[in-house]
Design brief:
Helix content is 48%, strand content 0%. With 63 residues, the protein is an all-alpha fold. The N and C termini lie far apart (43 Å).
């Protein structure tokens, strides 16, 4: 089976980072936010886009 070396490296880094915080999602996010704030890069944030229209229920569905 074909494997992507770059993806494998990314997965390993992500696993190591999560393990360092005992897989605590809040702690992982807090750490990433601290790193983002300490970075000299410009942070671009855009508001979420609202859907253009409400989706109609599928005919025959119970909603």
């Amino acid at each position: 089976m074909w494997t992507d070396e770059v993806l494998e490296e990314i997965y390993a880094i992500r696993e190591e980072h999560a393990k360092a915080f005992n897989y605590d999602l809040q702690a992982i996010c807090d750490d990433l936010r601290r790193k983002e704030a300490a970075s000299d890069r410009t942070i671009v944030s855009q508001p979420l886009k609202k859907p253009k229209q409400q989706r109609k229920p599928f005919p025959g569905s119970m909603s």
